[in-house]
Amino acid sequence: MKAYGQMNTEELLALKEELTAEFEDIKSRGTSMDMSRGKPGEDQLALSMGMLDVLDSSSDMKSQGTDTRNYGQMDGLLEMKKLLADMVETDPENVIVYGNASLNIMFDTVSRSMTHGVMGSTPWCRLDRVKFLCPVPGYDRHFSITEYFGIEMIPVEMTENGPDMDTVEKLVEGDEAVKGMWCVPKYSNPQGYTYSEETVRRLAAMKPKAADFRIYWDNAYAVHHLYGEKERQDWLPDILALCKEAGNPDMVYEFVSTSKVTFPGAGVCMAASSEANRKEFLRHLQIQTIGHDKVNQLRHVRFLRDMDGVREHMKKQGELTLTRFEAVWKLLESELGGLGIGTWTYPRGGYFISFEAMDGCARAIVAKAKEAGLTLTPAGSSFPYKKDPKDSNIRIAPTYPSVEELQLAGRVFVLSVKLVTIDKLLENK
Amino acid sequence: MKAYGQMNTEELLALKEELTAEFEDIKSRGTSMDMSRGKPGEDQLALSMGMLDVLDSSSDMKSQGTDTRNYGQMDGLLEMKKLLADMVETDPENVIVYGNASLNIMFDTVSRSMTHGVMGSTPWCRLDRVKFLCPVPGYDRHFSITEYFGIEMIPVEMTENGPDMDTVEKLVEGDEAVKGMWCVPKYSNPQGYTYSEETVRRLAAMKPKAADFRIYWDNAYAVHHLYGEKERQDWLPDILALCKEAGNPDMVYEFVSTSKVTFPGAGVCMAASSEANRKEFLRHLQIQTIGHDKVNQLRHVRFLRDMDGVREHMKKQGELTLTRFEAVWKLLESELGGLGIGTWTYPRGGYFISFEAMDGCARAIVAKAKEAGLTLTPAGSSFPYKKDPKDSNIRIAPTYPSVEELQLAGRVFVLSVKLVTIDKLLENK
């Protein structure tokens, strides 16, 4: 098939007619499909059902002396700290175990900085301007938090090696209003890129203008590899150790959860950071809550056991995810390959494939797909203020539908891309 | 035995010698006892172990169509809403289900008011003065929250019918800086008083000077009766309904949890309020988190079933608590009765007995008890800024020790009261 850009008006119109017929046919079936969020599929959830068997009324509910059923042990069970630390390859001493959602810790941390500042700095709510760097495309829910608190978001271009570090360094080291930076450093949302060692080292070595500048290191997909073989997995250095080495021990808050290891909503999450930062987290936490769910922590450690257990579990999950990613890739390649109307990423882990349409087409493609019953993440979501300046990025989330559903959903997607692009090309003729 | 106030110096000194001998004897045993917090005992926790059997790997994990293992249903399972609403006798429609700790909702609500105001009001962090009314003695962790946010706390005297309403009305209706009021309306912490219907009606009918004034109605002990017979239980009207009737639909946030029904830390909690307030809660929640633990909600509804289930469960718990309360009362009566050196409350539910020592003695009594290995709640804790103006109130929390341990702990307590009071009386001779 000829690249669309080389077709003349007649060819494009003929193609449009043909594709429209196919599109209308699918549309008439009235199917409802969802590829909008990074949501585990049923088969993936089934892998964790054994977690419901590890505790029953005859169980020993103690963890290293702590009765998990009662108050106490605000910072979490030792064995849970160990497991979560191992997942991100950091020291268990760095860890505070929280509740069910790492997003909640990030929100609360921003909120605390607004009302109480960071380690004695002026509370951000009293400052005229507070800015966060936002690698783009990025995770929409990060951007929602900073938007909610009126924090100005500065987009920084992502590359395959992480955010454009020249820009990051210039902004962080030159502007005292820059107080934070969002990062999904491994299998990034939505592109699936992993920060290179050089990027991580440069981040760790920055000399921020603001003493209360912090990197929000959301290591959400730390163990979410598509492939079981180690050499086909991405690796990320322990930024906390690198920061310490570089004389910046307090510059990073790291987050991870088991939301996409066991059950979303019924998982366990953590924050890892320096001793001084942990003290500040705990001072706040002791006022905020009576402690987190230690029974669920116990359930997790009894079920997952240790990193071998996690690896074994995630290998099965990776296989299920890979099947879906491959189904999408196959369709994209066979249907869009060589047409010059879109590119997409090939991550080795995580939950998403990032699709780059022709400039100015993303919003229309998402709307078109919706017509035929396919819900995609709203275009622009991966950008601050939901504004994609090029209107080209679409996040594909293939984990929830079954492979069968994906076939149809994928068809709707490629048809939508084609039809919208043709219209765009015709407009420009 | 003669009242201490009528003894002369000689008598007091002789008594002191005798009591000191007994005190030193216990002290020499080196026992460690804890009556400092409202913490369930082992036998009470055992009552909920069946909750670990209701879900296993073969369970249907759906609740009215919702897969509890996945994202979604931000405001909680319908059946959980119903159960929590029934516990406080309000409409399930009023309810948003949260995580494991109602204290956390209260904290977050104050925090949100600081950063975002209340329904469009000026964010409290931009105001010069924000005040909360604090019925005293009250719950220390409420006061810690308001202190943490720099909110000025105004103590209001508690009576057996609730806070002194003349004062409350005057302050709420006369001062725009008064933005909130802490209440534990049923089996109050620490006295165990329940607000009378008249008190609740007067609260509901107030005309606050500040449009963003809210009552924080912490109905923590709603179902925590000591006695199974209905006529021996306290009853509290549904303040949300009364507020609506009085034209103040948005004035109250109500909170409750199962922390002391099932497992502290592994329970489920809620906020109940008007539609407009719930909208504001949810707008915040959708940014703050990906949702709460619905698997634990399912576990709770499968285990407790309905209000009959809750009543049956809490009847057993009440029996265990009552045995402990009775052990304490018996000791107080036989050892302190008629001496004129202390009074105490006889609640019909909740977790605490409140003890009033002679003015100026509470701090010294707590310190004295500590000498012999008994940890009590620090004196002053039940007051804003931890300052009991009369230094007379001590909170007794008898639920954690066994009845056997309570015998010894109780002896230490009464000996400490006696010895400290004698010193006080001698000082004043």
Strand order of the largest sheet of chain A: 4-11-10-9-8-5-6-7
Largest sheet of chain A: 8 strands, mixed
Structural class of chain A: alpha/beta
What is the subunit arrangement here?
Answer: homodimer
Number of helices of chain A: 13
Helical amount of chain A: 40-55%
What is the CA-atom radius of gyration of chain A, in angstroms? 23 Å
Concise account of the structure shown:
Chain A is α/β, with parallel strands linked by helices and 429 residues long. Chain A contains 13 helices and 15 strands.
Describe the structure.
2 copies of one chain form a homodimer. Chain A has 429 residues and is α/β, with parallel strands linked by helices. The first copy, chain A, has 13 helices and 15 strands. In chain A, strands 4-11-10-9-8-5-6-7 form an 8-stranded mixed sheet, with helices on both faces. A 3-stranded antiparallel sheet of chain A has the order 12-13-15, with helices on one face. A two-stranded parallel sheet of chain A has the order 1-14. In chain A, strand 5, helix 5 (140-148) and strand 6 form a beta-alpha-beta unit. The interface between A and B is large, with 53 and 53 residues.
